[in-house]
Amino acid sequence: MKTTILILSLTTLSAAAAGRIGVSFQYGQPALEWSNHTGEAYVVETTSNLTSGVWQQKVVLTTDAATAAWADDALLQSRLFYRVSLVTNPAPYQSLQQ
């Protein structure tokens, strides 16, 4: 099965991270990577249909590393779109890092 994957970079990413989302495949699964700043939290969402307007949240991610990365371990679909957004209020997620 041929899979199409598109990464959508939104303006809600920090200026340093915007436009720097990379995609690779690890063990046949898509993996996303982008620049990170300590204290920021990101939400990764997917959709198989851009016109539906329905996005499914996959993960909220925080890290102290300079690079944030996430690999999708779900079964691949024939078409899947990814969106990474900066969480506007990261405080609830930062406490989980402690």
Can you lay out the helices and strands and say which pair or pack?
Layout (H helix, E strand, L loop, with lengths): L3 E6 L12 E5 L2 E7 L5 E7 L8 E7 L4 E5 L7 E8 L4 H4 L4
The residue-averaged pLDDT reads 74
Distance between the termini: 42 Å
Strand order of the largest sheet: 1-7-4-5
Gyration radius, rounded: 13 Å
Into which percentage range does the β-strand content fall? Answer: over 45%
Instruction: Return residue spans where pLDDT drops below 50 for at least 5 consecutive residues.
Output: 9-17
The major pleated sheet works out as: 4 strands, mixed
What does this molecule look like?
The chain is mainly beta and 98 residues long. Helix content is 4%, strand content 46%. The protein is built from 1 helix and 7 strands, in the order E-E-E-E-E-E-E-H. It has one helix spanning 91-94, and strands at 4-9, 22-26, 29-35, 41-47, 56-62, 67-71, 79-86. A hairpin with a 2-residue loop joins strand 2 and strand 3 (29-35). The longest helix is centred in the C-terminal third of the chain and has 4 residues, at 91-94. The protein is globular. It starts with a strand and ends with a helix.
Write a concise keyword list for the protein shown above.
98 residues, mainly beta, four-stranded mixed beta sheet, three-stranded antiparallel beta sheet, 1 helix, 7 strands, 4% helix, globular
